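Hi,

I'm pasting everything inline rather than attaching a file, because the server keeps stripping attachments. The sequence lines come first, and each chain or strand is labelled.
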Amino acid sequence: MQLIFNALIAGSLAALIAGGLSLVYGTLGVFNMALGQMVLFGGYITWFLHIQMEIPLLMSICGGALFGALLAWFTFEVFVNPFYKRHRFLPLVTTIALSMILDGLILIIFKSSPKGILQGLKNSVEIFGAIISTEQIALIAFTILILCSFAYVLHSTSIGRKIRAVVQHPQAAMSLGIRSPQLHRLIFISSGVLASFGGIFIGIDQNLSPVLGFPITIKAYAAIIAGGRGHFWGAIICAYLIALIEQLVVGIPLLPGGNYIPAGYQHSVALFFIIVFLIFKPTGLFCSRLRTA
Amino acid sequence: MNKLATIALFAIILSSCTGEPAGEEGADSTEPIKIGFIGPLTGDAAAFGSDAINGAKIAVEEINAEGGINGRQISIIAEDARCTGGDAVSAAQKLINIDKVDVIAGGQCSGETLAAAPVAEAAQIVIMSAVSSSPDITNAGDFVFRVYPSDALKGAALANYFDSKGYTKIAMISENTDFCIGVQNVISESTAKSGGEMVFNELVEPGTKDYRSLMTRLKDIDFDVFLVNSQSDSTGGAMVQQMRELGMENEIVGTDTLDSITLGQVMGEAMEGVKVLSVPSLSASDPKGGPFVQKFTEKYGNAQQSTFFAALSYESIRVLIDVMNKVGTDGPAMRDALYGHTGYDSIVGTITFDEFGDVEGIPYALKEFQDGELVEVERIPLN
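And the predicted assembly:
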């Protein structure tokens, strides 16, 4: 039970980040390699507002998310928009450059010592024999709330229908009068907001340090590739799935004789599962029939 | 034609970089003496890397203000090795072959020092680490020195401490880095020797922050003490926090990397009562080290991890400069002088090198987090 909760905590974090990314990848077809750094910036700004400026937590979180939106907007206009129409792999290079710049900025501005948004020990409660802190429950609930509201927008509003149309066939959507460039910008910015929520999540649940960026990016991509291109729910489910596998690998004895797989292989085993899976179903767990690679 | 011009331009740039006539080692040279620095300036371990470089910079500034070494000023060239061996090798090669440094200060992570040592050894250049503690460095080479006590001694000190408390069942999580594996081996050996038992001994990928499932397993195990064997304070802090969140009250002991002034602030009561076996702290009220701490804080603000690390780096540079003052910048001559260099009085203790280039005279201290501050509980003399 504790393991499932552990997976929920880790998975919620991954799902927040992967959800926005899957929309970006699905509609724009571009890779944003600076995603992990955007995550960190959201967390660090919230830390700065809450701890340094002593602004109440909720407002700090809004500030962090707002900054995430601005950063994503800036990224889109400078590093993505001028390039992605020429070739969708160009932003791969420009955003790698951006990730390096942001990595450096984080080190210069926030220094390398670890930072925590909520300081001190959390109040733990026991549910079904598993121990979980109230903050973590709040984080999981918040993640699900955010994802559900995204789902609502995606499935029940006209903007959502337009987004899905652009995912399915950008040219056809354009010919029907959907202004996909505007939508692209909107989607990119909302992925930035989701990313900053991810950073705030890390800052509250663990602590922020400048090197987290790249591993976060890699995990989010693993989830969206496993989930199938442009499939919002696929990415989210796979984010939780990868987290669950990672927790099970170290949490239950999988080797004969009741031995545990050494913890150092935690991430490799999870990614190995994904690779094996993709061999049998290369379109991803929830393939969309209208895939165009 | 255009292509040719580009190539020509490139060639000119290249030659201006490397084609400088290498300053022949003349005694009357007035060129600055170059000290290369290798350390983690970015990455997870950057907290103590930046303390080390800042400490080294203060030493260099002081000597330059005093007129340098025989009228020659000193310059320091810093290279970032990000706590990895591969980057440390490139850094050492660049410093030796391109910058033509006279001596190298570094690396800071044990993995850096171990990787850079053969390069310096081959070039017959002295390499002096400020904070590397892996037992393997003892035999890393003739030109390899350090001012930090070897983890071989830490194993013994920890085993003594566990013995005195009656702890026999020891649990440990280690990061997969040279430093942590050194500690892991030493602890496993000393525990076996003193009749104890490692009831939980896991190795994780460097930088892991999620220890919840490992801690869930640990919860079902009967153990006396948990040893945090992390490469940095951010990962070690995560271990402590997630263990306490699961309600385990067992004693926690950490090594040098947990000796971090920011942890008490970031983790708050999670760190309360956690013990750290490390080198002593250095505060602004210390009679010997006080002025250095004040100077450091004035210039660079509070230390990222520990002023003691900065002070060690500062003193390691002072020792190098002291030796260069006596015998010049020739590598083998410096090496011989360092081996014969006994009882150098410093703000961190008396520095003497044994026949392996390991330091004698830097003690350990057992500290405890109390109200978010690290308080020294006990001084443990070595040797």
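Confidence is low (pLDDT under 50) at residues 14-27 of chain B.

If the labels don't parse on your end, tell me and I'll reformat.
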